[in-house]
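Appendix B. Raw example, untouched.
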Amino acid sequence: MPLIKIIPQNPFITARESKFIKNGSQFSFLGINAYYLQHEAASPDRRYIIDEVFAFAQNIGIKVIRTWAFNNSEIINPSVISSKPDEYREEGLISLDYVVAKAKEYDLLVILCLANNEPDYGGINQYVAWANKYLASANQKFEHNHFFTNESIITWYYLHLYTLLNRKNTFTGVAYKDDPAIFSFELINEASNPGFSFDNIYLWYDKVSNYFRSIDSNHMLATGEIGYDIDNVEYSDIKSFYNNANFLFNGSKGTSFKVNSMLPQISYTSIHSYPESWNMNYKSGITWIRDHSNISENLSKPMLLGEFGVKNNKVEVYKEWLQEIKKTKCQSAIVWHYVHKDILNMDGYGFNEFNSPGLIEMLTDFIKDLNKSISKISALNPEQAELNQNYPNPVIERTTITYSLPKDDFVSIVLYNSFGELVQEIDKGYKQKGNHEITISLNAELLPSGIYIYTLKTSDKILSKKMVFLK
């Protein structure tokens, strides 16, 4: 039985050094939010909406679509996924299956958000209502905060994770946890907990992210938060850049972007931007992006602007914000939101090709320009051989090693233990110049936990890095 097994090329998007990576190269994108897809897919006569949304995305170069993967209600309709905390409805789940399967058909990726801070589609309110129905006593009434702190409610959330991640898509036969059509999962949309310590949400993220990772070792995971914090350290001056909007950074929202983002199972950071609703000039949105990007890059994590929106002057504002996104290492964002012409939505942020042709043209041009710049970066060869830090690290089951060559060369990759003893030669052979990656699985039965050293040997260089293996 081998100590190390080479895994075929990783088909999943990963995060490394503040960038998204696909097949060893940087993956950057402009995406759209379309929260309603699962709901619409529940009605056979409305499924054309999913096809038309995906066809639109494919046509202008959109690569990623963010959507809801929850629908909780005691009022039964075909789209409801869970009608009780421990009761899941096949009809609603098949609707989500359809969305994921169609994404693959159109060569798109989906971000699946697993819960909602707000009451739309059930959200935390439904979990609290269930708790007051099934758990409450004369001495206890459940409220918003208990979603993050009550073990019974957290167990209900675990059940949602377990049900989705282990589910086999009825259209493709692929389990969600194994499906490369899923870009990532988000734990909850825009979590906040006013009046309570940031610890409550932080500890919840920590618990549920570890539970998620115990089931799914393939996909990236994010919090889905807005970007609120508990102090203004590392942020620009509140008076000069944020119109004295102290609520963004004084802990009143009960969550901390900086603390949450440090969690080891969180693959990339999340922010949303709505300066109009925060009583700020749209220029504050540029600072919001820049500040959070700097914090994220210091953590070596990509920052994804997962929602952004204004109700007025969309073309002008979005153009400036997206230029700021291009200055980040990640260079990725998802606009809120694309509204199909047959969807009724009056929030003022929605757009489509019929009511906003100028905006669509600007977004299309941005995507073309972004793709060109990424292609130029990918075409560059390093001046000398480079060996990068493996990811994820520490290693629980599998990890990916990436390296770059300035010329065609014969290489060998070898793993040693902390005493310098040979564990196994991982790979060797003649490789072309450019970027390379190799994903390996470490045998937990035969290898002890500890520090290991992996080495890249070329014709004229030896490079080494450390990795930590945890059982």
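End of appendix B.
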